Amino acid sequence: MSERVRGAIALAPALGAGASSLALDLSAGDGLSSRLLAERGWRVVSTEYRTRKPGWIAINLDNDLPLRSASFDLVVMLEVIEHLADIPHILGEIARVMRPGAVAIVTTPNRLSVSSRIHYLLSGYYKGRRAPLAYKYRVADGRNWHVMGLNDLHWIAWGAGLRMDAIGRSRRKMRSRILAPILWPFIAAFSWMLYGRVKDPVQRKINRELLGFMTSASLLMDENIIMRFRKIEKR
User: Fold this and answer.
1) pTM to 2 decimal places
2) Four-way CATH pick for 3-112+126-173+222-231: 3.40.50.200, 3.40.50.11540, 3.40.50.150, 3.30.70.1110
3) Summary mean pLDDT of the chain
4) Would the pLDDT of 16 be above 70?
5) Which DSSP string corresponds to 198-222?
């Protein structure tokens, strides 16, 4: 089983005895994540861009989701966001269909791992985009064109009313296991100075939270970043 999928599903809220909450699996692919959620007691609505699977819904994620607002207790979108033309739009739509306090789990290639950073230094390309895209493709073709870092996704999600509260565990290659302990003191020290240069107390609090994610073992070593968000309740 994919470590990425297993790590993502592990972040899903546990359901109490007899509970049956509604989950949305966006662009569910081979259906593994949907099956694992169903095994944990979730009622799952699965989608794909085109699908003939019984009970699945065909949805183009570049458009508004054809789903009612505040309908789902959990939204899952695994290795999809980097293919989409408008990332702020899809995170806004995910937030819209979530009930207050609901959870969203999003995964994407981890461009900020230590091995990805070194690859970028040498080639100009991050994890998930390690070489130039073929120029016969366009954004609308849905290639792996826009791999964003956790810091950018944290900021976009915040504006949509989603708060990152955890990151999961994915596959770790040996080179990252070796490089991360060597580079961590330098990354942590530089990041602490960078994030600490803020006078606004609200922003300083956000920066402390972000610093914890940005210097974590998962961010520095994992091949994929698994992010869990909660929808805040508006007062």
Assistant:
1) 0.94
2) 3.40.50.150
3) 94
4) no
5) ---HHHHHHHHHHHHHHTSHHHHHB
